[in-house]
Design brief:
Strand order of the largest sheet: 3-10-11-21-16-15-14-12-13
Radius of gyration: 32 Å
Length: about 575
RNA sequence: GCGGCUGUAGUCUAGCGGUUAGGACUGGAGCUUCCCAAGCUUCAAACUCGGGUUCAAAUCCCGGCAGCCGCACCA
């Protein structure tokens, strides 16, 4: 792309899409303000995403706190693994990535902890590459923002580095709200934080950013999706980790095992549809499959939606099958029962062996302890008691020997109506800021220094500009009425009576407003106004009372010609 | 975090030891029957911050901060 990244950023700053945050204090890297147009564009993108995921697919939208206590990220692995390790030279102060120095000394240095890595470096007498000085022990730089909850030392907490964990820890609530059925999904739109070493490229890598994440909890053996039938014929540009880039139908990709399951394939389609709906250029989109070694070790399959923008191919969305890893991790650390219950078609009769205490024998032998001993016996695995003439149990810290006359092995029949299972998670994770930037990037057009943002009506912050040709002779009053009628219809309108008419059209073109309505001298005699289409600059005349309907039709994609039929 | 380059109105820029710091665009107020950044009048608006050198610094030097590019990183 030959476009200068500065051009678009400068437009964004000039017209109120984006401002560098805290500018009057010198700014802060990786933090941006959304101006009025940026905030509106962001909201429009969010709302379309909601329309697809919440209204379209029935996901539950929830909102979780941004701050979370440390154990949450202990469980997720972020406290230990979401960090880089550094060593410093004790004489010249140069810093190195510790795991990089260990390359060649170990198969996968990234998996080592500080002590192991420190030992590895010491044992191999690794020194400063510049001055041969001694190195400090490895230190961690965790990419999470640390804080604390409460007064004094408080309780260690972090700003979330992704919105996902809030949904994993709420699995049981979501499952219950969804009437205890799989699949069930939750979504969350919100802020996340990463203390990036080096934020770059405008909105592409921020320290505080916005995510739209969906977590779909599915049965591990039933990764199917009924609506997949409707979309399997759709061709999507794919870049698999084996073989060349190709455009193929999702059905074909699924059947040839390029995409590992139907659910994943469906959400790849939904992501593609979302992207094209909000105006990303299909010719500059592709789905890239993660390389085997690029994928998290637990992930089953992962596809990124990438857009080609001024900075090159950039990841906007990750659609991953994460298996049961996340839920499993929270089960282990919290000891909560984050499982779904799978009901069998028919309850099964299961024969189960158990140790049954004989209280008539226990009583005389153990007196007051007999009850506790009986309970301990009942918990013994049957195999450990079978055929033995005595067993040992521990009651109140005391080891007791119990003869076989005090118990028997019973076969118990139980009705089992289902089983517990840990759901697998399909995670479509959208980087909202990157998506917003890409929408602007793909919409940016420049011809002889005349800039037009070709934003789709669906996402355009302002839907229509309303102008009097001249701000006098009563034209301004009529234009004011038209403005009010359009606003009352729920459409974002912008009134402008300053400067020449051409300048006003240009202002609207530059912020991506799809159409403009102008009140002129003819309006006074016949009540018609002109409606101008941004992309063709063509105009039609319609009755001023029909403006709101016409604008609604235009922004949902009707051609300008069809508008004149409203006359 | 490392290396290179760069910081002048909202934006793009001129100035490279002594300037009332210049222009263009944008923006505001007005004039003009004004439909594609037209014209005219008029107004507003800037030297990234701190230290140093010098009689004198936007300009030279050092440092901070910020940006861009490359390296590294990207769960």
């Amino acid at each position: 792309m030959q476009m200068d990244p500065q051009e678009l950023l400068s437009l964004c700053k000039r017209r109120g899409f984006l401002w560098p945050a805290y500018d009057i204090y010198g700014g802060a890297g990786g933090l941006y303000d959304y101006g009025p147009l940026g905030a509106a564009l962001k909201l429009n993108i969010e709302n379309h995403w909601r329309a697809l995921y919440v209204r379209g697919e029935g996901f539950q939208e929830i909102q979780c706190p941004i701050i979370a206590p440390e154990p949450v990220f202990k469980a997720s692995g972020h406290v230990d693994a979401f960090s880089d390790m550094y060593v410093e030279c004790t004489s010249c102060g140069e810093t190195y990535r510790a795991d990089h120095l260990a390359k060649g000394l170990h198969d996968n240095p990234a998996t080592l902890n500080e002590e192991q890595l420190g030992k590895l470096l010491r044992d191999n007498d690794v020194r400063c590459e510049l001055c041969k000085g001694e190195l400090t022990a490895p230190k961690r730089f965790n990419l999470m923002f640390k804080t604390s909850i409460g007064a004094g030392k408080g309780k260690t907490a972090y700003l979330r580095p992704e919105t996902a964990q809030g949904m994993f820890v709420n699995f049981s609530q979501v499952y219950r709200y969804g009437r205890e059925k799989l699949p069930v999904g939750a979504v969350q739109i919100g802020r996340a934080f990463r203390n990036e070493i080096s934020p770059r490229q405008g909105l592409i890598r921020l320290r505080e950013f916005n995510q739209m994440e969906a977590e779909l909890f599915v049965h591990p053996d039933q990764k199917t999706w009924p609506k997949f039938r409707d979309v399997e014929g759709v061709a999507i540009p794919l870049l698999p980790n084996s073989g060349d880039a190709r455009t193929m139908t999702l059905g074909e990709a699924f059947r040839s095992k390029i995409i590992s399951n139907e659910v994943l394939a469906y959400f790849i389609w939904l992501t593609y549809r979302f992207a094209t709906d909000i105006g990303l250029d299909p010719k500059r989109l592709r789905f890239r499959q993660h390389e085997k070694n690029e994928m998290a070790h637990y992930a089953i399959d992962c596809w990124d939606l990438e857009a080609e923008i001024v900075y090159g191919w950039t990841e906007l969305v990750g659609v991953a099958d994460r298996g049961s890893y996340d839920v499993q991790a929270h089960i282990k650390h919290s000891e909560a029962d984050l499982t779904a219950f799978e009901r069998f078609d028919e309850p099964k009769e299961v024969e189960q062996e158990a140790v049954k205490p004989k209280y008539e024998a226990l009583g005389p032998m153990f007196k007051g302890k007999a009850k506790a001993v009986g309970e301990a016996l009942g918990k013994l695995p049957p195999a450990s008691a079978r055929g033995k003439d005595k067993v040992e149990v521990t009651v109140g810290g005391e080891r007791l020997t119990v003869p076989s006359s005090c118990f028997e092995i019973m076969v118990r029949k139980e009705k089992v109506s289902g089983r517990k299972l840990v759901p697998h998670v399909i995670e479509p994770s959208y980087g909202l800021d990157r998506i917003l930037y890409s929408v602007l990037d793909h919409a940016y057009r420049k011809k002889d220094d005349y800039i037009t943002l070709g934003l789709k009506g669906l996402v355009a912050p302002i839907k229509v500009g309303v102008f009097p040709l001249m701000a006098k002779d009563g034209l301004d009053a009529i234009a004011g009425e038209v403005f009010d009628s359009v606003s009352a219809a729920g459409l974002e309108a912008y009134y402008d009576d300053s400067g020449s008419i051409g300048r006003r059209y240009a202002r609207m073109d530059e912020i991506g407003t799809p159409c403009c309505v102008t009140v002129d001298y003819d309006t006074k005699s016949d009540g018609t106004v002109t409606v101008r289409d941004r992309d063709s600059a063509e105009q039609v005349r319609i009755q001023k009372s029909l403006v709101a309907n016409a604008v609604s039709a235009l922004i949902s994609g009707s051609p300008l010609k069809s508008i004149s039929a409203l006359r």
